[in-house]
Amino acid sequence: MARLRFSYGTMGSGKSTLALQIHHNLSSRNLNGLLCSQLDRADGKVSSALGVSADAVEVGPRLDLYELALAMAERHGSLDYVVCDEAQFYTAAQVGQLARIVDELGADVFAFGLLTSFQGELFEGTKRLLEMADESAEIQVEARCWCGGRATHNARLVDGDQVYDGELFLVDDPDDHQVTYELRCRRHWLAGDSGGAKRVTAHAAVVEG
Ligand SMILES: [Zn+2]
pLDDT for 41-78, tens place per residue? Predict the structure, then answer.
């Protein structure tokens, strides 16, 4: 039986690395699959902080994942799996399309994503995946807060100060503020406490899904 699986974790938990690993393992067994991402750094690729990458379909909000999968199944005679990185950014409708891929096409779907935004709230895609998935599991690679505690939250910093409001998608900042992300435990995320040091982790945050 095909299943819809959702694996979630913070930034730095190796979601993209896992997505790439599953895609590699299945495609090297000659299974037909799709690798999907969204808002990834290198255009049309999934890349991990460890420096691995693979070609991927870029998923915009209007892409019908079911139609894409159906076309793929028709072209290759079958579709065995779909791997989705950055699935927190999918719309609720797209998560529904993933469920149809499982139920109607019999393909396994492996979705990876963040649980909560810098605002501390579930992403739309994540919420729907938690509601719809056959299995949801937290990735067991633990990221750490500066205090050594387990990092469960992503903090957005603007010029070094944590913010809790703002656009979910920050593309270009016209005022040229420096936007970075840090991993925090809940206590230090709530307190906006960066431990006295202003760490610059923008690169890590951008690279690591
Ligand atoms: Zn902490």
Answer: 455 666 666 556 667 888 888 899 999 999 999 998 99
**How far is Cα 58 from Cα 80, in angstroms, rounded to an integer?**
19
CB-based burial label for 204 (10 Å; 0-12, 13-18, 19+): middle
Between CA 32 and CA 77 the distance in angstroms is 9
**What is the extent of the structural domain holding 52?**
4-138
User: Of 38, 180, 61, whose CA–CA distance to 114 is shortest?
Assistant: 38
Q: Are residues 66 and 16 in the same domain?
A: yes
Residue 114 Cα to ligand 1 middle (Å): 19
Q: Are residues 89 and 191 in the same domain?
A: no
Distance 197 CA to ligand 1 centre (A): 13
Residue 12: pLDDT band with limits 50, 70, 90: confident
Would 109 be classed as within a structural domain? yes
Query: Please, which pLDDT band fits residue 203 given cuts at 50, 70 and 90?
Result: very low
Cα–ligand 1 centroid distance for 17 (angstroms): 25
Phi first, then psi: what are they for 125, rounded to 5°? -65, -40
Catalytic status, residue 67: no
* Strand-strand pairing, 81-84 and 33-37: parallel
Query: Which one of 67, 86, 121, 208 is the catalytic residue?
Result: 86
